[in-house]
Amino acid sequence: MDFAQLYGQFDLTPEGSIILMAVSLGIFLIFLVIFGIRISQSIKDSALNNGKINQYLAAVPADRIGTVSAIYENTRKHLSGAIILCIIGGVFGFQRIYLGKRKSAMAMLIFFWTGVPAVISLFDIVNMPRIVSEFNLGVIESLYNQLAAPEIDNH
What is the DSSP code (8-state) at residue 91? Predict the structure, then answer.
């Protein structure tokens, strides 16, 4: 089977090639706009979560701020690290292991050969600011509730 038989249904004249290129570029631009909107929303959500994190830190009593801050700094995740892991090993779920999502990381590792985890990792990159800030918000909420929440006197 030669090229003409395999791709005979496509118009490979110069005009047909231009049309095919234009359609491909249009589809690419649509995906780019969708990803841009999604990244923008993820950054807005991240900013809201970071504001909540700052509120929790501001509410920690002065005698416990050192302990809470030290544990938080050692436990929180960094956006740059998560993005690098997603770029380097996103198809294997490295970013999910980093963020403590071991079950979904295992599923990505098992099915990496299908290509589906590659698509998922693209969405992970786009949503990473929100995902990391949600993780960090959960860390500070837990620390605040365990170490810094005001004691309730039940007398």
Answer: G
